[in-house]
Amino acid sequence: MGSASLSILTPSKPTPVSSTEEDPPNPSTALLSFNTDSSTPPHKPTTTILFISLLVITCIALSASIAFAFLFFSSSSSSSSSPLSLQIESTARPLTKLDRPVVLLISSDGFRFGYQFKTPTPNIGRLIANGTEAETGLIPVFPTLTFPNHYSIVTGLYPAYHGIINNYFADPITGETFTMQSHEPKWWLGEPLWETVANHGLKASTYFWPGSEVKKGSWNCPLNYCRYYNSSVPFEERVDTVLHYFDLPSSEIPVFMTLYFEDPDHQGHQVGPDDPEITEAVARIDRMIGRLIQGLEKRGVFEDVTIIMVGDHGMVGTCDKKLIFLEDLAPWIEIPESWVQSYSPLLSIRPPAGFSHSDVVAKMMEGLRSGKVDSGKNLRVFLKEELPDRLHYVASDRISPIIGLVEEGFKVEQKKSKRKECGGAHGYDNAFFSMRTIFIGHGPQFARGHKVPSFENVQIYNLVTSILDIQGAPNNGTVSFPKSVLLSSP
Ligand SMILES: [Zn+2]
User: Fold this and answer.
1) Pairing with 272, which of 44, 217, 309, 409 sits 20 to 30 Å away (CA)?
2) Going by C-beta distance under 8 Å and a sequence separation of 6 or more, which residues neighbour residue 35?
3) Ligand 1 centre from 331 Cα, in Å?
4) pLDDT at position 87
């Protein structure tokens, strides 16, 4: 995991390839070749050789300075060609058509940070160019799974506190099982944004979001404002429904709206992050953003609406050579299937009463470190209390007492099978750069062409309540965070 922390410290920022700078003279190569030449055995010095040498040195120096000048001017001219980046804004822009701020929160599931460079994305690019972007992506919460992350985004809480600690889990006290179809309020702790908004007597709407169908507090998932999840609804229909909210009388327009797309997560699982199918899925999401922007512009509200576009997590390629089998640990300890709550990438184990948890961890680690278990060194098992603090994955009975962290791209399975599959996965340590997703904020309170350092998605709740100017519920986000990202009130 050391490499993961390193990648956090020195993220490699993908930069689009410039088509205008074809093979500029490379000063470092020129200097290197000069040094190489000078290391050859010296000839008898004559004035002619001296003269030629001086000429060569002068030429090299000149070409080097030309190269530097070329690079300098081309980079400075490219930044001056986008006047917006030079424009310094300090105060929020006033609303021109809407009576009050409206936040539209969009999630593109599994939109790994960097996908925006796979293909031209003019519409997402427009939001970025005229808005504020997390420069090296949005950091998901651990585990980097869909339900825990979507619910962290709207509650500002880590999964241990909002209760959705995995996509599937069992409550150890009641024995009941949570699935992605469980809408009973007892599972969903914390106060999601639609509930906060409703508590203030304001209208919210949800076009799909994990937890949005759960009736809690003042939120009763009202007809026409709250859509029950149905993955077959075309993306265009979702966008158009959101647009129609802006045709309502001013007092009826929801001040907070969600919009959800399953892509490109859907494709990412099947083919991994580096397949042309992902490129096409990203292009399609961009077209949906274009449809949305056009619709808002037609209604004259595009500049008034705050659009926050995020993903829930990234994606990494997995292949069957990167597997760890629990059955291989049998010489040290038998881990029956019935102990395992989830395998991969989050290994979660709850042994029955009577077993010492620390004994199970010690025996598993002994096996994994023995060198006799295939890929054993790529799985580390912890008592949940001993997980790194930065994962915030301990303070809930729903979290199993034993948690395994696997290296990027690895998977844990019970036993060897003939199943051969290469695809993609997420759910890993949120320190992996591959798990990062996007954050773009566009609207009156976001500076144009602004980049902010990466941050965790639990900060978004306070950001939204701050934009809406309503009091939010206590959460794990930093109270001062919105001030560091948003423009001050006029
Ligand atoms: Zn997801």
Assistant:
1) 309
2) none
3) 37
4) 56
